[in-house]
Amino acid sequence: MRTRAVGAALLLLLPAVAVWVALEGRSDEATARASEAGGPAAAASANTPTPAAPATIPEARLPPVPAGAYCLASDPPEHYDEATLYEKIDGAAPAYFERGFRALLTQTYAPRDPERFGCELFLYDMGTPANAAAIFADQRGAGAAAVAVGREGYRAGASWFFHAERYYVIVLNADEGADAERFSEQIARGVDARIRGGAAR
Amino acid sequence: MTPRPGATDPGQTEARRDFLKRVAAAGAILAGSGGAALWLRGRRPAPAGALARLPSFAVDLPPGVPRMAIARGTDARAMLRAALDALGGMGRFVQRGDVVLLKPNVAFDRPPALGATTSPEVVGAAVALCREAGAARVLVTDNPISNPEGSFLKSRVRRAAEASGGEVLLPRARDFREIAIDGTVLARWEFLLEPFRTATKVIGLPTAKDHNLSGASLALKNWYGFLGRGRNRFHQAIDAVIADLGALVAPTLVVLDGTRLLMRNGPTGGSPADVKPGHTLAVGVDQVALDAFGFELLGKDPAAAPYLALAEARGLGTRDWRSLGPPDIRTG
């Protein structure tokens, strides 16, 4: 009887060890992943019981694609949050973090002429209008041409920049020509309208 | 018959012996499985000594040959040729049959006009001069932040490299291996090692651009592009990591592309207004000197760059680039 009791106790210890090992391993993996995603701060937060869901920008903020020199790229819109912003802008990310960055939504527009580069929309959610104005001011260069879109809009070549509500908007377009400039303007005005429409709702 | 007091029943003895055997066996299994599980969970990579190390690709320059030269102008190939001639020509660095690995900065899928990537004209010129010097193959690679195919396409680096006889190697997962770095921050890391297996010479082709964290991205920072997974975590110790990489990679030559200068909002840029024409190339074998020169091209003080101080303290070169007496050539 005693033999069986001791044997059973020992056998029960085996799954207990397995469970402990599995839990420890999972904890280590979570810490490593969090660390890889966002450094020590993120690694520390991996132990937080109920982490907040990453912020995302609704794709309804994206404007319709105007007919013209570009079309919607086959790549879907891309979403980035605090843990993944490095994957898009690498060492530029900390400047956004300092200004309250919450999320980034990008959309690529492919050129119909393969000799051209294409156009890309960056829609940064900075959390508050003040933060959006601050990162906009940080990055604004001297001598840019003012345009009437969003707040304090300006353009450089065919690229457009403005802030509206809590968003910092860049329509990045390095192509030359009137059709490239017209397309960027239509995208800029379209996203501005979507932002203001969303705010009204 | 009743057993004598103190005497042992043979059956009982047998049972106790069997019991002890079972306990010992179960204990051995328990200890073995627990130990094996712990070993599997806590298994650490091989010690750094067992990892691959990057060889030096540096060449010895004869006495009297400057370690750096500058060329100014508008034609990238003419500038590169003129600057290299001051160091003895490309033939001093690349010989017939060499397999040359070129490392431009192709970190982002951005057009050349935004200044975030090495100018395609400079990449094309470097490939052409390597081929002219007799290189059997000229490999061009980087591990971009953005999609590699899109980055090499949109930066026009692929087109320029291939048009001049180079081969673009887009990094694949299997091209990375953990190597020993033995730095102050980096002991080991995944590295784009595969191209180094065939390369006999390595030439850095950084672009001169502003960087939000290190002040500038130039020759030493360019080696970041060889690092694999999760390299963004090093941004918190970026100065020491850049110095570590400078100690790790001993290139044959570095060509600093100052034809376009991303003056602000680096490393990505984002507006043509952030870029100004530089009309300058610098070549050399002293990466610290080239970076100090690059800081000045960007209108910054190299003395304020912590990574340059670290690199100089580690004997990787001098921040006093003028002390090298570099020829400064105008090519028209």
CATH architecture of the largest domain in chain A: 3-Layer(aba) Sandwich
What structural class do you assign from the helix and strand content of chain A? alpha+beta
Task: Please write the CATH class name of chain B.
Answer: Alpha Beta
Chain pair sharing the greatest interface? A-B, 44 and 45 residues
Query: What order do the helices and strands of chain B follow?
Result: HEHEHEHHEEEHEEEHHEEHHE
Radius of gyration of chain A: 24 Å
The CATH class of the largest domain in chain A, by name, is Alpha Beta
What ranges of chain B have pLDDT less than 50 throughout 5 or more consecutive residues? 38-45
Largest sheet of chain A: 8 strands, antiparallel
CATH superfamily of chain B: LarA, N-terminal domain
Summarize model confidence as the mean pLDDT of chain A. Answer: 80
Helix content range of chain A? 40-55%
Count of domains of chain B: 1
Oligomeric description of these chains: heterodimer
Spell out the helices and strands of chain A N to C: HEEHHEEHEEEEH
Structural domains of chain A: how many: 2
Examine the secondary-structure arrangement and name the CATH architecture of chain B.
Answer: 3-Layer(aba) Sandwich
- Give the percentage of residues in beta strands of chain A: 15-25%
**Biggest β-sheet of chain B, characterized?**
10 strands, mixed
Low-pLDDT runs of 5+ residues of chain A are: 21-49
